[in-house]
Structure formats: C-alpha cells, structure tokens
Specification:
- α1 packs parallel to α3 and α9 runs antiparallel to α10.
- The termini are close together.
- The longest helix has 19 residues.
- The protein contains 11 helices and 10 strands.
- It is globular, with a radius of gyration of 19 Å.
- A 6-stranded mixed beta sheet has the order 1-2-3-5-7-10, sandwiched between helices.
- It is of the alpha/beta class.
- α1 links the parallel β2 and β3.
- The structure holds octanoyl-coenzyme A.
- Octanoyl-coenzyme A binds next to α2, α3 and β6.
Length: 266
Amino acid sequence: MTSSHNLDTLENLLIERGAVSVITVNRPKVLNALNTQTMDELRRTILALKHDAGVRAVVITGAGEKSFVAGADINELAVQTPAAGREHALRGQHVLDLIENMGKPVIAAINGYALGGGCELAMACTLRIASETAKLGQPEINLGIIPGYAGTQRLARLVGGGRALELLLTGDQVTAQEAYRLGLVNRVVPAGELMNEARTLAATLASKAPVAVRYIIDAVNKGLAMTFSEAEVFEATLFGLVASTDDMREGTRAFLEKRKPEFKGT
Ligand code: CO8
C-alpha cells in the first residue's frame, strides 16, 4: 500500500522519503523548537510514513550543527491558559505516541541540544544515537513547569525512577557520554559521523522482516505497560501471528540453505 498523504506543504520539516526516510526539524533560528505547527506537521508526516509500505525505517534529526530540538516553543508556553496547556500537552503526547507506536524503527540522530520536548521526542523514538557534542535534559523545572510530552514517564522507564527524578528536579543538562552511561542514548559517535551511523543502522533495521520488527516494537512498548504474565501472553500471541508470515518461512529456510534471507514484509 502506498500512501496518499501529501507532504508537499510542510514548512518546518524537511523530508527525505525512501526505504530509510529522514525527517529534519527545520527551525534553526530557534534551535528547532517545536511550535504547534511543527508538531502538527510531525503528526501528518509520521502517519504518512507509517502507511507507506515502501518506508522501512525513519531517522529524525535537527537542522544545523547546534541543536536537535531545544524543546517546545517557549513563546507559545508563555501565554498558554490552563485549559489550553492541558490540550497542548495531550496533543504533543499523541504525536509522540504515534512515533513510538509507528511499527517501524525510528532513530533519533541527536546532533546537539535535546532539551525538554526535544529530549521527549528523542525518547519516543525506538533508538537514540547522539553526537559527542549533544546535550540532553529536561529543564522545564527552570521555567516553573513540568514536562508535558510524557517526559516524566518515558525518562523514568528508560533510566529508572531515581535517575529520572534527579534530571527532572535539577533540570541539569547531561553530556552525550553521561546520557550513554545512564542508558538515555544507545550510542555516542563523533559529530561528523552521526548521520552516517544513523542511516547505516536504519538501513540494517530496514533489511529485517518488517512484521517481526513491528511485533518486537509492540511487544516491548505495550508489554511494559502490562503485568509480566499478561505481557507473556501478548508475546506468545504475536509469536503465533508471526508464524503465519512468508518472511518466517523465508528466514528459517534461508538459514537452513545457508544463504541470506530476502524479506518482503508479508
Ligand atoms: N523555544 C523558543 N525559542 C527558543 C528555544 C525554545 N525552546 N530555545 C532556544 N530558542 C531561541 C532563543 O530564544 C534564541 O532566539 P533569539 O536569537 O531570537 O534570541 C535562539 O533560539 C538561540 O538560542 P540562544 O541564544 O539561547 O542560544 P544559546 O547557545 O545561548 O543557548 C540553549 C542554547 C541552552 C539551548 C538555550 O537556548 C535554552 O536554554 N533554550 C531553552 C531550553 C528549554 O528550556 N527547553 C525546554 C522548553 S519547555 C518544554 O520543552 C516543555 C515540553 C512539554 C510542553 C507540554 C505542553 C504544555
């Protein structure tokens, strides 16, 4: 199935569409801060790439050398009412949930500041690669607010409650190396190698059996919200479903025939 979603009218995102698609948040003058329009463009883009069978993996990065995403746009936060703030947070959470549950690997290529909503965006991705120069953190506390794109939840799940509370309450930025030590990013690479590394990893994941990839992401993400025994039943059901795919037959046959498998996504 190819997608009919039209991405020609995007103003704040650059899209490279292919088996490995690249989304670049492109508001470098404000360090790629996420305003309402950018979040809406992200929502439309994720849905389009999700429904495009030709797309097997996605990389998300920020324009310029300085910043991945420096957070939600503080100009908008400064004037929000309580009711609008709640809606804003719910809408942002929805967009990041779409990324987390897209069913395809999404790699955050963190090329600089990933603060507030930027760190939350990176945490919603399947995997995170940071450049040595990246800085990550949840500085909302310094603005007198709290994270609203599920940062309190994803950070605690990724690095544990104690470490999450320290980052959330101090608002301190951590270096890429420290983020790696905490388990907040998967890899740290020299700045000049970031996009190559992200594209190569995305291409590797894009070559795997797409249904199995989707079920692994589902089993981990949805399973984390279940009891262990419920999650085991869920895993077993997905295991049974994946056994109905051509790709399972191809993968097991290729092993026995000592050749590389060719997965088709069926
Ligand atoms: N929003 C709007 N503009 C921004 C943002 C932002 N998040 N970050 C930077 N900018 C702008 C600056 O205002 C500046 O604009 P100008 O050139 O017009 O003065 C330009 O980008 C360049 O920034 P700086 O001059 O500040 O660059 P520095 O190198 O001196 O500093 C920093 C870089 C440290 C990244 C600094 O810009 C900074 O601290 N930015 C804010 C980081 C932050 O607090 N982020 C969290 C925002 S809150 C949030 O994300 C909540 C998410 C959930 C919301 C839920 C809905 C309710």
